[in-house]
Specification:
mainly alpha, Cytochrome Bc1 Complex, Chain D, domain 2, 2 domains, 9 helices, elongated, disordered C terminus
């Protein structure tokens, strides 16, 4: 067997869980590790207290959306804007003036009390956002698989059964050998079709899940 020294303990656990048919987390967002960062937690708290009334991460509110704003502006510019956007506009900064005009001349509250670390924490939060770790459980999978069938399916089977009875009656009542052959072939094909669908729906053995 080929050696895999590069595999971590978590990699091996995931492989074993898969071979045992046990659920493994479907999605592990890279940002989830960042979400546990104390800086991000502080940034979220500062954002909710000071910024959330006018800003959202994913869309405009009173001010612009702030998701990944650190990728759009330089760190120095963002620090100057958050500390005192009025002073930044007064300096003739074009971007600061354009944003002010875009949002109907609504001035943003300056935050001179924020330290550089506070602002960095807020920017870290806007880059990560609210990460939701996706996890699956065996119980959830079982509930999804064991969904009860609709009663309309049994009505369909009943209709098909009636058709089979009619076909059998035609077979018995008919004096024509050719008609008997055609009817027999029809009944066999229809019966095979029904049997296939029933087996496909319920599985040929326990724990079988049709694709």
């Amino acid at each position: 067997m080929i050696a895999y020294p590069q595999f971590s303990d978590q990699d091996l656990d995931d492989i074993l869980a898969y071979t045992d048919d046990k659920p493994v987390a479907v999605e592990k967002d890279i940002a989830s590790s960042q979400a546990a960062d104390p800086k991000v937690a502080l940034g979220k708290k500062l954002f909710q207290v000071n910024c959330a009334a006018c800003h959202k991460l994913d869309k405009k509110l009173i001010g612009p959306a702030l998701a990944n704003v650190a990728d759009k502006r330089s760190k120095e510019w963002l620090h100057a804007w958050i500390k005192d956007n009025n002073a930044l506009r007064a300096s003739g900064d074009k971007d600061a003036i354009d944003i002010f005009n875009e949002f109907n001349g609504m001035p943003m509250t300056p935050y001179p009390q924020f330290s550089a670390d506070d602002i960095d924490a807020i920017l870290a939060y806007t880059s990560v956002g609210d990460v939701k770790q996706v996890a699956t459980t065996q119980a959830a999978e079982s509930n999804m698989v064991a969904t009860p069938k609709s009663s309309t399916e049994w009505i369909s089977y009943l209709i098909v059964f009636v058709i089979l009875l009619l076909a059998a009656w035609v077979f018995i009542a008919s004096n024509s050998g050719f008609l008997k052959i055609v009817t027999t072939i029809f009944v066999m094909l229809l019966g095979t079709y029904i049997l296939f669908n029933v087996l496909f729906d319920i599985g040929v053995d326990q724990d079988y899940q049709p694709i």
